[in-house]
Amino acid sequence: MHALVFHGNLQYAEIPKGEISRVIEKSYFPTIRELLKSEIPFALNITGFSLQFLPQELINTIKEGIESGLIEITGTAYTHAILPLLPLDRVEAQVVRDRTLKEEIFEVSPKGFWLPELAYDPIIPAILKDCGYEEVFIDGEALLFSNHLNSEIKPIKPLYPHLIKAQRGEGLVYLNYLWGLRELRKALKLTFGGKVTLKAVKTINAIPVWVAVNTIAMLGVGGFPLMSVKKAAKWLRGMDNVLLYGTDIEFFGYRDLAGYTLEVRKIVELIEELNTDIIFPSKLKHSGRKLYLRTSSWAPDKSLNIWTKDEGNRRLNTLSYELNGENAFLAENSDARGWEPLAERRLDAFKAIYNAWRDEE
């Protein structure tokens, strides 16, 4: 058995705001429709803020998928905020706003919560449980590194550094890609199936998102060099009770990955090649493991550095820390602090901070 999660965020750091309607047309509509047509169940995670941009036709399609038992709605932070960087009252505000909107629009109460950028700390599960959540999606690889809690003493090294270099176009790209595939297959051996129980301020069941599994599926579906649907299926065969895909819906039909754009029909082919049953993530079995997860994200080094170390990010984090009200949500949007944010995305947060400051005056 396998499961699927498609994460949608129309505040995406690298996508211009003027492209939002095209993202919906090229990615959201065809991907969701094809999965429903193929009767493949999947979890759909769209930020509450993004829902305002969805045409009513798409909202109706999603509601039909829910009613037919093919779509499981998950919760997340309203504006895709990096929750470990926020005061606790703002964490709760982000969680509650998103959940309330989904209950109003889709008439369901999500039970699973998708952490933006899978950024986590051990107090977040308590807030999620207080807000009615039963499960949380986490970075599986961060679990593997959580036996040592101080990254200053023992820094985390990425499991597939050459693949990261190849994706960035660094060095001898093809050679890095070849080495990266070897590293990726080695990392796959570290994964395990099933949910875990997290030791946290309040214990909660967690669904690991394994980057190795996800990347292999993407490389196969995208038809990358030396990869294909059949080869990806061969590598993944035997990996049971895991998320087969768990990341951005925008990679299907709209946003390229190192020059390759994924096609949803190919993921249908991968499922057929694996000869596997697809179930909702909530239906995955428990592994019996009870583990501690360190403060982390799904960045290659599992840290929060991407959203904290840059001077602009530090300024945004400092200025937005004590904000409240509607402008606070926009100021907290992670995609103003993203991996490679566009200026207009970053300016949205600075403008929200300024407006909040003026309102307080």
TrEMBL record:
UniProt-listed SUPFAM superfamilies: Glycoside hydrolase/deacetylase
Ranges annotated as spanning the membrane: 207-229
Keywords: Carbohydrate metabolism, Hydrolase, Membrane, Transmembrane, Transmembrane helix
GO terms classed as biological process: alpha-glucan biosynthetic process
Annotated Glycoside hydrolase family 57 N-terminal domain residues: 18-284
Highest rank taxon of the organism: Archaea
One Gene Ontology term of the molecular function aspect: 1,4-alpha-glucan branching enzyme activity
Similarity section: Belongs to the glycosyl hydrolase 57 family.
Protein name: Hydrolase
Organism expressing this protein natively: Palaeococcus pacificus DY20341
Lineage, highest ranks first: Archaea, Methanobacteriati, Methanobacteriota, Thermococci, Thermococcales
